[in-house]
Amino acid sequence: PYVFAEQGNGSQYMLRSTTRKLIYGHNVKQRLFFDLESDPFELENVYEAPEYREEVQSYIRKLSDFVLFETLPPSHLDDRAPVVLPEAAQRQAAEWHSTAEQWFRERMNAILPDSQ
Questions:
Q1: Pair 60, 47: CB distance under 8 Å
Q2: What angle do CA 66, 69, 70 make, to 5 degrees?
Q3: Distance between CA 89 and CA 93 in Å, rounded?
Q4: Cα–Cα distance for residue pair 81/92, rounded to 1 Å
Q5: Reported pTM
Q6: Which entry of 33, 58, 93, 112 is 20 to 30 Å from 43 by CA?
Q7: Over the stretch 69-85, which tens digit does the pLDDT of each residue have?
């Protein structure tokens, strides 16, 4: 089992097992790997150590898979966007549907004039 954490909207990630811990940031100086069995106080960064290279790569792959396939994408809110009240939403949806349908038909007729 692993523990996953994120900081700064994806600027730095952490993946930890009972024996190892990877901290991975966009900046190379923010990349750390600790052997928690021999270094439980996380004093020695072994990220660049040749004897840990395969384990570091394995943790990076696991972290990448988790970020890409297991987490939800961040939501983005635009404070300047207009607010649509619920009672107006149905009316606008019908208008937008009609406009979109008309736009689509015009484009299709321009491409395939005989498809009317």
A1: no
A2: 60
A3: 6
A4: 16
A5: 0.60
A6: 58
A7: 877 666 667 777 777 67
- Residue pair 71/5 in contact by the 8 Å Cβ criterion: no
In this structure, what is the dihedral angle of CA atoms 49, 3, 58, 43, given to the nearest 10 degrees?
0
Residue 95: its H or E element: helix 86-111
pLDDT 10s digits, 45-102? 999 999 999 999 999 999 998 888 877 666 667 777 777 677 777 777 777 778 888 8
Burial pattern 32-68, b for ≥16 Cβ within 10 A else e, equals bbbbeeeeeeeeeebbeeeebeebbeebbeebeeeee
Task: Tell me if 13 sits within 8 A of 64, measured CB to CB.
Answer: no
d(CA 83, CA 96): 16
